[in-house]
């Protein structure tokens, strides 16, 4: 153990994996320390797979999966989960869509029933489709159109960083595309992507493994076998020159900027990817990080700066192509060019002088805390394991992450920093349009 | 298509409270330690009563408490905390200053040492204060461009009048005037162990965690000024306040209704009445305005407990063109529950939700810490959770109907809407008197 280095503990969550005859992959992670369970179903389809002319469809379809299914009327799903003392939700990501509930453990069989029922088929009706188009439009208004910095940077960076429709388009969708969605589109989408061979079921928490396997067989065993569709490559070549765009946000009172650089394939080159995850924290985690110390505390050039992997902010649930993202908010009259030049300077310094052993060790210790905290909730653990099974066939990786992050070397971080050149950078600037006053 | 039958629920597992230890130190600090060893971390919360503190100075103090001591700069403090996987931050509301942190449990002693250093020796260095002052002012400007902030500001003013809760964000000019000397004076006056509560939750042995806290913090001494707040005034219904936000594509609807503290005999019944009305997804109001009419995405209704009083707040962001109809449905659903008792199955569903989410809420270290510190701040302990569960289990339909008639009556509501007055004033005026004012006034 190197001097000054905290011992980094792992998490000890047991994992059981198996596949049903119909192709549904299952992960169990028992933990009897509290009388609660998490149930997650993850389908291998996300924003990148939606067809041209149907922006926002993956998310709209996620809403439709809550509108009743083979044996359940509209509203029944919500009432059955909440009437058992649980909560539910779903969310749409670049590469997957998840559905979950977390409940007292006496509702385990009920949750399995509900997920199996909609895996066999949602009730797709014109009335429910129109209702949910309205709801999604309100969601976009509240999160994007009616507030300053709406969609910044997750909807604003992709069209600068990428060229192809799957990677570059607006994942929330245009109102025009949402309004033209049809039941036939929804039926096709379900048939193509919501096959049980394209899904992972994960169950975590207060459960008996043998009993749970029997319940899963009972409820999911007769879901018709349908194979996963072939997943296309979404690969794009790296940038060959700097890209820079700006837009006026009429509601924003102050300038902001976000910058992104492509990083190695998170699945095929995990060892090459991990140093970038650490690098983002060396740059931006807390007052003792490089960019906070320089830009916020010393130069007062920004009021806040953040850095992370993945355009939606989570590093271990995304496939290639993806990016390291930095974003900063500036004071009135702040100079975005100067901020980007300072970022380049600090990255250069890292690439030239490297990161000190003490600096790396403390960053890794803090990352271990964050990783462990995320896995403390049964549901968080269950969801992450479902995605790791789907994308890597390795749900146990979750427990290994604190250790693996801790094994990244100073030389790897230095080498990662050396690739963040201005000519590989895509940046987008928010020009304030005045704000409310 | 064959219809399958929903499987029944298994037997309930009773709520089990985790091991807890508590000690009041000689300096007046109460320390509570709770064991939940699920991950090798510890959650730390320090509640310092801060009622009646000068708002701009209090907020600046929360932003600069960790900006340096005689021994360490803010960067050194952050680095020392990071070494043990730790971090600390401070936040202020109208009741308290709360210092929060998480770290590897092996670093607990070091985190407590650094916390003690800050509590006994924060220096509020001039340059750091200047930096944080500018950041805070920018933060307030950003908040003032957010509709949710603007409507909250208008609602608090309307609800609380001259009570200290009426204004919870300072104006930029007030922050501009805060100097380090004022922060040092406020620290000397209010950052004191008497009446403060330290909570540690995680992979700890509770008694040993108390010992660690005592070792680290017994040198922190002094009596503070008690900041007791007067009780909140009763809500005064009146014309709907419409705050103009020209060009807004949505309207922010807010209704404030009376509520009671957690320990009041009506509380459990009111909680269930609120759930039936709009307090969760499977409620009358959400099923109506979202799942039937599509007016909104995330409407919610919740009882907000503060030290000096409680209130029930109904919130929805709705499309501008349906502002009138959305308000109509809101008043209708409130009035319906205030006038007619809920159905038995509606009540059972709400009851199960209330009991189940109680269990979910304390199943993580951070969830347990959030519940325990909120309780401790008003003099309650974790046992209250079990008592409250027992009350929820026993509430009758008549009690819920009575609570709804008392607290959910739309006639008692204070109503505020933020939106494009040119487009929503007339549709709202159909439902009752409206008074319009400009945003931020």
3D architecture notes:
The complex is a heterodimer of chains A (437) and B (441). With 437 residues, chain A is an alpha+beta fold. Chain A is built from 16 helices and 11 strands. Chain A folds into 2 domains: 16-220, 2-Layer Sandwich (Cytochrome Bc1 Complex, Chain A, domain 1), CATH 3.30.830; 243-432, Metalloenzyme, LuxS/M16 peptidase-like (Cytochrome Bc1 Complex, Chain A, domain 1, 2-Layer Sandwich). Chain A has helices spanning 57-64, 76-82, 108-120, 126-145, 158-161, 165-168, 175-179, 183-193, 209-220, 270-284, 290-298, 336-353, 357-374, 378-392, 397-407, 410-418; strands at 16-19, 25-30, 36-43, 87-92, 97-104, 199-205, 243-249, 256-262, 304-309, 323-329, 425-432. In chain A, helix 1 packs across helix 4 (126-145) and helix 12 (336-353) crosses helix 16 (410-418). The termini of chain A are far apart. In chain A, 57% of the residues are buried. With 441 residues, chain B is α+β, with helices and mostly antiparallel strands. Chain B has 2 domains: 20-217, Cytochrome Bc1 Complex, Chain A, domain 1, CATH 3.30.830.10; 240-438, Metalloenzyme, LuxS/M16 peptidase-like (Cytochrome Bc1 Complex, Chain A, domain 1), CATH 3.30.830. Helices cover 44% and strands 19% of the residues of chain B. Chain B contains 16 helices and 12 strands. A 6-stranded mixed β-sheet of chain B has the order 1-2-6-3-5-4, sandwiched between helices. The longest helix of chain B is centred in the first third of the chain and has 18 residues, at 126-143. The radius of gyration of chain B is 24 Å and the shape is globular. The mean pLDDT of chain B is 96. The interface between A and B is large, with 88 and 90 residues.
Strand element count of chain A = 11
Give the rounded overall mean pLDDT of chain A: 95
Question: Strand order within the widest sheet of chain B?
Answer: 1-2-6-3-5-4
- By secondary-structure content and strand pairing, the structural class of chain A works out as alpha+beta
**Topology order of chain B in helix (H) and strand (E) letters:** EEEHHEEHHHHHEHEEHHEEHHHHHEHE
């Amino acid at each position: 153990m190197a001097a000054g280095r905290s011992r980094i503990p792992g998490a000890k969550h047991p994992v059981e994996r198996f596949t049903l005859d119909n192709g549904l992959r299952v992960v169990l992670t028992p933990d009897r320390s509290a009388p609660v369970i998490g149930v997650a179903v993850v389908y291998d389809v996300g924003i990148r797979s939606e067809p041209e002319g149907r922006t926002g469809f993956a998310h709209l379809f996620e809403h439709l999966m809550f509108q009743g299914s083979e044996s359940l009327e509209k509203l029944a799903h919500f009432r059955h989960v909440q009437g058992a003392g649980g909560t539910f939700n779903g969310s749409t990501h670049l590469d997957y869509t998840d559905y979950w509930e977390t409940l007292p453990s006496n509702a385990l069989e009920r949750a399995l029933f509900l997920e199996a029922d909609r895996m066999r088929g949602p009730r797709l009706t014109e009335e429910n489709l129109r209702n949910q188009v309205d709801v999604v439009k309100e969601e976009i208004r509240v999160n994007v159109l009616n507030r300053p910095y709406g969609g910044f940077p997750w909807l604003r960076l992709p069209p600068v960083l990428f060229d192809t429709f799957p990677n570059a388009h607006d994942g929330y969708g245009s109102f025009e595309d949402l309004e033209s969605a049809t039941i036939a589109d929804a039926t096709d989408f379900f048939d193509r992507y919501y096959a049980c061979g394209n899904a992972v079921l994960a169950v975590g928490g207060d459960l008996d493994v043998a009993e749970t396997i029997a319940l899963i067989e009972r409820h999911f065993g007769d879901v018709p076998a349908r194979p996963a569709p072939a997943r296309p490559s979404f690969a794009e070549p790296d940038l060959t020159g700097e890209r820079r765009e700006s837009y006026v946000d009429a509601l924003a009172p102050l300038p902001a900027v976000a910058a992104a650089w492509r990083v190695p394939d998170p699945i095929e080159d995990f060892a090459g990817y991990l140093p970038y995850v650490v690098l983002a924290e060396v740059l931006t985690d807390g007052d003792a990080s490089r960019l906070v110390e320089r830009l916020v505390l010393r130069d007062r050039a920004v009021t806040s700066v953040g850095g992370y992997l993945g355009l939606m902010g989570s590093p271990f649930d995304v496939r290639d192509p993806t990016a390291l993202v930095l974003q900063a908010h500036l004071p009135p009259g702040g100079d975005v060019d100067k901020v980007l030049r300072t970022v380049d300077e600090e990255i250069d310094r890292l690439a030239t002088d490297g990161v000190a052993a003490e600096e790396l060790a403390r960053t890794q210790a803090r990352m271990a805390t964050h990783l462990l905290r995320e896995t403390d909730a049964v549901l968080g653990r269950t969801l992450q394991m479902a995605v790791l099974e789907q994308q890597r066939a390795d749900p146990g990786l979750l427990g290994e992450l604190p250790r693996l992050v801790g094994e990244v070397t100073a030389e790897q971080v230095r080498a990662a920093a050396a690739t963040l050149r201005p000519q590989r950078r895509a940046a987008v600037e928010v020009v304030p349009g005045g704000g409310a006053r | 298509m064959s219809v399958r039958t929903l499987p029944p629920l298994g037997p309930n597992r009773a709520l089990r409270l985790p091991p807890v230890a508590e000690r009041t130190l000689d300096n007046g600090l109460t320390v509570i330690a709770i064991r939940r060893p699920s991950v090798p971390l510890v959650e730390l919360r320090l509640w310092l009563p801060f009622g009646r503190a000068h708002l701009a100075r209090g907020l600046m103090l929360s932003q600069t408490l960790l900006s340096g001591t005689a021994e360490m700069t803010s960067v050194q403090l952050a680095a020392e905390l990071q070494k043990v996987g730790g971090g600390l931050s401070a936040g202020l509301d109208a009741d308290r200053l709360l210092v929060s942190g998480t770290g590897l449990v092996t670093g607990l002693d070091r985190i407590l040492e650094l916390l003690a250093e800050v509590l006994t020796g924060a220096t509020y260095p001039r340059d750091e204060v200047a930096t944080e002052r500018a950041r805070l002012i920018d933060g307030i400007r950003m908040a003032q461009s957010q509709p949710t902030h603007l409507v909250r500001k208008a609602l608090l003013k309307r609800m609380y009048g001259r009570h200290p809760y009426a204004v919870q964000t300072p104006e930029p000019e007030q922050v501009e005037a805060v100097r380090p000397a004022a922060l040092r004076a406020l620290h000397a006056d209010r950052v004191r162990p008497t009446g403060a509560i330290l909570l540690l939750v995680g992979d700890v042995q509770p008694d040993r965690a108390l010992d660690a806290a005592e070792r680290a913090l017994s040198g922190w001494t002094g009596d503070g000024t008690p900041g007791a707040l007067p009780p909140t005034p009763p809500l005064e219904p009146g014309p709907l306040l419409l705050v103009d936000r020209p060009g807004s594509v949505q309207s922010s609807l807010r209704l404030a209704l009376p509520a009671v503290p957690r320990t009041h005999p009506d509380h459990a019944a009111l909680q269930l009445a609120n759930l039936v009305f709009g307090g969760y997804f499977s409620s009358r109001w959400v099923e109506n305005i979202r799942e039937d009419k599509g007016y909104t995405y995330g409407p919610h209704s919740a009882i907000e407990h503060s030290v000096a009083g409680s209130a029930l707040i109904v919130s929805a962001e709705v499309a501008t063109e349906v502002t009138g109809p959305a308000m109509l449905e809101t008043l209708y659903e409130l009035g319906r529950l205030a006038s007619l008792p809920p159905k038995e199955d509606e009540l059972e569903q709400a009851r199960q939700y209330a009991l189940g989410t109680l269990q979910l809420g304390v199943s993580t270290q951070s969830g347990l810490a959030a519940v325990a510190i909120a309780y401790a701040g008003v003099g309650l302990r974790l046992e209250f959770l079990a008592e409250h569960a027992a009350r929820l289990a026993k509430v009758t339909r008549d009690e819920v109907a009575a609570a709804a008639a008392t607290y959910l009556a739309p006639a008692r509501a204070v109503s505020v809407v933020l939106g494009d007055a040119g487009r929503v004033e007339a549709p709202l005026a159909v439902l009752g008197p409206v008074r319009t004012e400009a945003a931020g006034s």
